[in-house]
Amino acid sequence: MKLTILGCYSATPRTFTNPTSQVLEINNHIFLIDCGEGTQVALRRNKVKFSRIKHIFISHLHGDHFFGLIGLVSTFRLLGRDTPLHIYGPQGIKEAITLQLKLSNSWTDFPLHFHELTHTGPEIIFEDEKVTVQTIPLQHRVYCNGFLFREKPGERQLVLSKVQNYDIDIAYYRSIKKGKDVVLENGEVIPNSELTLDPRPVKSYAFCSDTRYDEAKIEQIKEVTVLYHESTFLESHKHLCAKTGHSSAIEAATIAQKANVGTLILGHYSTRYENIEIFKDEANTVFDHVEVADDGKVFEF
Amino acid sequence: MKLTILGCYSATPRTFTNPTSQVLEINNHIFLIDCGEGTQVALRRNKVKFSRIKHIFISHLHGDHFFGLIGLVSTFRLLGRDTPLHIYGPQGIKEAITLQLKLSNSWTDFPLHFHELTHTGPEIIFEDEKVTVQTIPLQHRVYCNGFLFREKPGERQLVLSKVQNYDIDIAYYRSIKKGKDVVLENGEVIPNSELTLDPRPVKSYAFCSDTRYDEAKIEQIKEVTVLYHESTFLESHKHLCAKTGHSSAIEAATIAQKANVGTLILGHYSTRYENIEIFKDEANTVFDHVEVADDGKVFEF
């Protein structure tokens, strides 16, 4: 599981910082999450192959999470894309994008599928044999979802030495990995548990930006491998959290601690701060495993 | 008259090149012309004060001229702007911007005036005591206007030595500059022509992007101080001009030569070319006074 931060600052793009966008690689999928202005340039800078992006998830329709989408869709068109693109986001996203495509007389040649979100509870919005993506309802100033990406459990892991001990033919390996017992030629039954180990633990990633402090989501994100949680403010400005619908570093860490996640990544910093390491310092007073996102940073888990 | 090129490449923004946007300073006005994605960052990089921009002119609604506008408007709002902003552009521009402001629940606190253009002939769209701005109808794949910025003639220039010779009181200087003759105390009339020189020549700037080769505009832009004319293609790709509604460097130079302009600035280069100096070489075969635009370049006239 690999996470590339294209942008992780709030509000407006600046010369050296980008608004929210990130790329999650999980089980051979490349998921683009949020798409602030300048995302297409950040994708180029971080050498993400445009053609591998098939699913884009937009948390909410504030500009710093969304204004780069129309440009990216248009560039896909100019590059001659023909594979389908799926866009998941709040109701209204389809009208905003299609209106601009219409006005520029530039309808895409590739299939463009919008999946407009309106539910206020968690909802599975993508699923295949390897991964599920579920919305995480967030509390912000406008309708807003986080996204929970979770691998599906893989097959059981074959213990090769054991299987070879019993001289089991390779033709049975597939069914053993699926959990089947084996009946030897002499009628002896070898229980699956003797031949395999549990599947490797599934990895999961919860993206939560933007949101005020809200414990309602804790149950849903319990024990995820990685939680990205916005931390717009430091303690010095925590009085702004309620009004703006954002969280402080300590609030993000409190969610991480209560949900017992593996690692917390902080981001969505207010551009008023020069030094983002202080976010980590403050979060560490509550939770140990804290990383700070920064534009261009890559996390592998 | 000062022109700052924020971006001058066609199609899509890239790591080191920006789509079309430029800032024209003329008679204390700061006019923003076109606004491709990333324009707000380019404005910061070129240290243009956001608050001085009061008028934005959009040639057409293709993304590389327009997709940065919503982000800039939103940033004005976030910066607490309260002065009015005037946006001039093709019909539809108001719906595209206001829909996105509505979806993000971020209506501006400052007055936002849209001036939607539909005329197919030249039209004066801005005028004050110092400057006029007129549309230049262009031939592109969608409805598109260039813009002609022209100073109004200033006052006549006082020849101080002459005025002092006649011992004329300073109280009369203003009326002399406006062209009035002076009657001395002894009744003698001093004709204005003896006391003043003609006003300094007015400067003018014609912005023409995007357009196929079209001589119809020549009369309108005759003898402008500076013509910016798109030159998307070199001779090697001139067969693409008609289909895409663009011009070659030689076509741009031909317009400049026939309109007898002071200086031609080339831009809107296709991103297929590595070396933009070749545009100048080709244009120079037809017209002498050629400059090549490039991102961050400043021209003073």
UniProtKB/TrEMBL annotation, chains A, B:
The gene is rnz. It catalyses: Endonucleolytic cleavage of RNA, removing extra 3' nucleotides from tRNA precursor, generating 3' termini of tRNAs. A 3'-hydroxy group is left at the tRNA terminus and a 5'-phosphoryl group is left at the trailer molecule. It comes from Aquimarina spongiae. This is Ribonuclease Z. Zn(2+) 1 binds at residues 60, 62, 140, 210. Its cofactor is Zn(2+). SUPFAM superfamilies: Metallo-hydrolase/oxidoreductase. CDD domains: RNaseZ_ZiPD-like_MBL-fold. Pfam families: Anti-Pycsar_Apyc1. Keywords: Endonuclease, Hydrolase, Metal-binding, Nuclease, tRNA processing, Zinc. Zn(2+) 2 binds at residues 64-65, 210, 268. Binds 2 Zn(2+) ions. GO terms for molecular function: 3'-tRNA processing endoribonuclease activity; zinc ion binding. InterPro entries: RibonucZ/Hydroxyglut_hydro (IPR036866), RNase_Z/BN (IPR013471). NCBIfam families: PRK00055.1-3 (NF000801), RNase_Z (TIGR02651). Zinc phosphodiesterase, which displays some tRNA 3'-processing endonuclease activity. Probably involved in tRNA maturation, by removing a 3'-trailer from precursor tRNA. PANTHER family: ZINC PHOSPHODIESTERASE ELAC PROTEIN 1. Homodimer. Belongs to the RNase Z family. Its EC number is 3.1.26.11. The active site is at 64 (proton acceptor).
